[in-house]
Amino acid sequence: MEWIRYVDTLNDHYRSQGNPPYRWSVNESAPLHRLSKPLTECKVSVLTSGGVSQCAMPAFNPNAKNDHRLDAIAFDTESSDFQVHDNYYDHTDAEEDINCIFPLDRLRELADKGEIGSVAPRLWSGFMGRIYNRTKIAEESGPAFANALLADGVDILLAAPT
User: Which end of the chain has the smaller Cβ count within 10 Å, N or C?
Assistant: First the structure.
């Protein structure tokens, strides 16, 4: 079996759409930290970038590029209240069960079982599509999102990228 050359395939795909070569981010270090308290005491949130929006909200542009939109979703929103608009992956399974890319029911179950402390008041969907303006993420959108997580007292963020 031959390996899938994901980076080469992705670069070829972007070039075929007339985009410049993608400049991959290179991080020399990662600020990873051990939890300061047990998982059973942690508040958890989630971020999906899979084009997930509540049915009453505007749909994401399925062909988005540089979309820094970030929707806050109440932790107790019904899992049936979502739509998926994204042309960058097959979302058939997500349309059947949103939890495969936005695990809000699973988080609530973990909290109910006492395996995590609690679910944060807000869960998140956004940064959809291909983001080429990384400076804006690093200097504006990312810090604003981090501040929202801090305001909610989030200890752990689960990232569910697509």
Answer: N
Other C-beta atoms closer than 10 Å to the C-beta of 89 total: 13
- pLDDT score at 57: 93
User: For strand 52-54 and strand 82-84, is the pairing parallel, antiparallel, or unpaired?
Assistant: antiparallel
CA distance 58 to 56: 7
Give the pLDDT confidence score for residue 129 in this predicted structure.
72
Contact 49, 40 (CB under 8 A): no
Give the position of tokens 């993608």. Answer: 22
pLDDT of 145 higher than 90: yes
Give the model's pLDDT for residue 55.
94
How far from 107 is each of 5, 6, 66, 73, CA to CA, in Å?
Answer: 33, 30, 29, 14
| Distance, CA of 104 to CA of 75 (rounded, Å) | 7
> 122 - beta bridge partners?
74
Is this model's pTM higher than 0.90 or not? Answer: no
Name the residue with tokens 């989630």.
Answer: 46
Domain layout of the chain by residue ranges: 37-160
